[in-house]
Amino acid sequence: MFCPKCKCEYCDGFYECADCNTTLVYELPEEESGIQFKELKASSNPAEISYLQSVFEAEGIRFHIVRTNGLYGGGPGTLLVATDDFERALEIVNDLTWNDK
């Protein structure tokens, strides 16, 4: 199941996006299907994933979130970014203050 708005992926049994309150769909819309994604960051901190989601939306970076567990589908997850946007997304993540340098 996927959120058509934020592109989060949910396990079976979830029907609404915990972030967007949008009804989930079985497949992403047609225009998203041709995009290749690459793993950028896995995090056990749901706030970090949500923050990156809002930053990437503001920057126009195409992304996809795979939630691994958590109440109502929120929680830890893996952030995937379109391969064309990967370098720019990586720069943004590396500039954030919580990263160890």
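Second entry:
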Amino acid sequence: MATITWLGAAVPIPEKQTVTLALTWATGDTLELIVNSKSLLLTAGSTATVTQVAADAVDMINGAAANDDETRSALGTSVGEWVGLTATSAAGVVTVTGAADGRPIGTITATATTAGDGNATQAVSIAADGPGNVNNADNWNGGVPDDDDDIVFDHSASGSCLYTLEQLAAVAPASITITKGFRHQIGLPETNQDNNSLPYDEPNETYFQVVSCADVKIESISAQMIKIDTQSAESHAIITGSGSTVEAGTPPVLIKANHASSTVAVRAGSVGLNYEPKTTGQIATGYVSGTGVLEIGDSTTIATLTQRDGSVVAHNTITTVTVGGGTFEHRSGTITTLTLSGGTVFPVTNGTYTTVNHNGGVLDCTRDTRTQTITNYSMLAGTTLRDPLNTLTFTNGMDIYARIKDVTLEQAPRTTYSISAI
């Protein structure tokens, strides 16, 4: 076991891929180039030698004017996936060069449709590499991490951790620590906006992956964005601070966890758990306290969520929720048992709560007009129920363990109450 620190100091090497044209081409033959599912289609003009078709392909990629009467489906300068690439040619060979920082191009597919025997073959001549690549040993003080190593992101880093993020997908480090001195980025946005006018879905892995980690500590108050995926193995994460984000509209710390024994504790900072829609995940326990903010994705299963303060937005099903302070907004799914002793709970869903123990705080139904069902409801002194539109349906009635004057009931006018002993 060793302590391995991220440096981000490798020399950038732009990727180069070649497309070699050969044999006999003719007017009207086509060359289709596809990168990350986005196609550029060249139809050969009157001059259809391999050298000329290659030169025409270069101008198509680079966004230059046509040389003669060849036609192009689009120019590389108008397609987001192609914008960062440049091309040259020599003797019928097209060389496509990637970004200067070593960002991977993706797989270029070349397809020739010709009347004769013309063809096109693709190959990688220089692999992408650089200061953002996880698989480059020069980016780590101690070499690429392995099982049982302690991984550290701190003030030593001179750049972000961006590419080949799946390199450690089979590695189980002993710990991952991101300190307040780390000023960079771990992971990529889901939408690539290197060119703001031509965004596209990011084809590279966007989360730093490990197979599991028993000890994830994040205090990234100076970081730009943190994205960590512990996959389907047990992990335990504590977040005590977050910085900014380059992924507009998302929390600055994003965690993926998918194991029935995993835990996530948020004491400060803003965190998204399995945040992207339809991201399957589960944890045993979530904790939120202090100034922590947690938003939970719509396909996450949680056995127990305990909130002492802070803010939670849940789009999912939770077995047991205990709220003692802060705000809890439930936007989708069901809750088996909700115990509210402080703070405010906002049901923003048409789901069902099997049991609600209202021992303090506020149950506020003013943010949604849909009907919610509470099977079993009990209310103690000092509590407030706000339901001015009577959106709540109490299957087994309301058990109020207090004098009416000791609770606050805000319900619609002309509401009928049937009183009986508990």
